Amino acid sequence: MAAVPSGHPLTSATSVPVRALDGEPLILSSRQAEPAAADAALAACRAAGVEPRIAHEAHNLHTLLGLVACGLGIGIGPAGMRRFRHVGVTLLPLEPAAAGLEFHLTHRFGPVPSVLGAFLRTVRQVHRA
Predict the structure, then answer these.
(1) CA dihedral in degrees (7, 10, 60, 45; nearest 10)?
(2) pLDDT-based confidence at 82, cuts 50/70/90?
(3) pLDDT for 111-124, tens place per residue?
(4) How would you classify residue 119: left for phi > 0, otherwise alpha for psi between -120 and 50, otherwise beta?
(5) For a disulfide at 27, which of 60, 73, 93, 121, Cβ 3.0-4.6 Å?
(6) What angle do CA 122, 58, 60 make, to 5 degrees?
(7) Does the entry feature the keyword Methyltransferase, yes or no (predicted)?
(8) C-beta of residue 41 within 8 angstroms of C-beta of residue 1
(9) Rounded to an integer, what distance in angstroms lies between the CA atom of residue 83 and that of residue 63?
(10) Which residues are CB-contacts of 45 (< 8 A; sequence separation ≥ 6)?
(11) What Cα–Cα distance (Å) separates residue 14 from each residue in 74, 90, 123?
């Protein structure tokens, strides 16, 4: 997902080709905070022949969107960023889409407490979406 500052020419598009990020200042998740997310963003750029120009690294998605809203660059983040609305930011899908991150969930064997059961159902629903 690309987070584009208001007023940027890419905001008129329905998606952002990764190639269009060539030469643009980018805002990525911090490698320290989210190494898998940072690696996925860099891999998407390099697969499209784009050498990323990293302007800033953000420790969380709210900071990433705030930096984009200030016009400091284009952010690359997970599709889950769509949940956050931020004034001054247009969220657009990347083309081709960056690889997703793989998550694993484990829990203790035995009876499943109701809270854990509810959590597992929510994870399964979100995973299907």
Answers:
(1) -150
(2) confident
(3) 888 999 899 888 88
(4) alpha
(5) 73
(6) 25
(7) no
(8) no
(9) 14
(10) 18, 21, 26, 51, 52, 76
(11) 15, 10, 29
Cβ(73)–Cβ(84) under 8 Å?
no
Domain locations in the chain as residue ranges: 2-95
**Higher model confidence: residue 79 or residue 69?**
69
pTM: predicted TM-score of the whole model, two decimal places:
0.77
Alpha-carbon distance 55 to 27, whole Å?
6
Q: Is the peptide bond before 78 cis (omega within 30 degrees of 0)?
A: no
Are 84 and 62 in contact, with CB atoms under 8 Å apart? yes
Mean pLDDT calculated for residue range 49-66 = 94
99 pLDDT band, cuts 50/70/90, is low
The token pair at 65 is 């969107």
3-class SS of residue 25: strand
**Superfamily of structural domain 2-95:** Periplasmic binding protein-like II (3.40.190.10)
